[in-house]
Amino acid sequence: MxxxxxxxxxxxxxxxxxxxxxxxxxxxxxxGATIMSGLITIYFDIPRQLxxxxxxxGANFVCLPNEGKITQQDYDKLKTLxxxxxxxxxxxxxxxxxxxxQKPYILAGTDMDGAKKNSPFWYIEGQWVKNGDEDNVMxxxxxxxxxxxxxxxxxxxxxxxxxxxxxxSSVSDxxxxxxxxxxxxDFYEASLTVKGIVTTGGKEESFIFLNxxxxxxxxxxxxxxxxxxxxxxxxxxxxxxxxxxxxxxxxNMIGSTVKRVTQSQDTVLSKLTAxxxxxNVVILILTIISVSTTMIAMIAERKKEIGLKKALGAHNKEIxxxxxxxxxxxxxxxxxxxxxxxxxxxxxVSLSVFGRTITFQYLLIPVIMLVxxxxxxxxxxxxxxxxxxxxxxxVLKGE
Length: 399
Known about the structure:
- The chain is α+β, with helices and mostly antiparallel strands.
- A hairpin with a 2-residue loop joins strand 3 and strand 4 (about 105-110).
- It has 13 helices and 13 strands.
- About 55% of the residues lie in helices and about 20% in strands.
């Protein structure tokens, strides 16, 4: 039998003979590794989870025109620039004034599918208008209440060509009134159906939402965008960098973050990071203490064994290597079990808090096992020092 095999056999036999003590130490390492790996797994997944949660509060990035309005070409450049980002939704907005029963209102043309992805918090009575569904609109709750509109009602929109002010009337207007409003050939007329009523508690309740292409037809003009809202899964630093890139590459566009959303996300993330760091430090300290006390108790039981080894010619280095070997084996086994249990712990936390699953971080296996080995080794330092101080003459007296 080689020296290495003999060394491993001694360590394993020590585990077996003192399984109750080793089980206590192993349990401490497993618990520490489980909590530590679980929290680290959650920490690495928190930005993605928080990003998804904060996306439900609306867009976190907006683009405004530097002067005039944003053109279709500028919009296409923006989409190309952010195509590699984690874009949840992008929605351009064009606003045009209209009149309904001689009162002013705002037509808001947008990409309806993008607006839906950007604003999942909108409550829609009825249905969302889809892209390509040009004959239907969604009206804000305030407008619906003022005009007495409900799902399925129709409004007649009369838009002046070449970007002139649009005029809209309810279908109930008399033919004479409609004729008085539409003198000349410069007016575009369309009948639209209310498909949804928008409730947000904000300015959206005073808009009439329709497809951007339809609004362009109403005013008979090219695409001229007033603002672009984007929802991107990214942190504040990355969004600021994106804003600089947009300002540099698209001169007629100014990109900026929605600070109330991005800063709130970063604040929550920084506090959670500090909390996870604090908990991990506490867990490491408690694990070291637990391993150390267990090893001290084991050394107290093995005084005669250690004394006999020294009496037979064993050096302090060999005594140290015996205990370090036991500590390393303890850390490897406890760390591996802790990684598996930690992932299950993190999965349950993620499902209960965010309602989403997380991905297993394979890099955690060697990292947690290494940390566990370091913890058990550090925890063994004081017991090992006591072991090498044992005097064979004293412990073997009378034997």
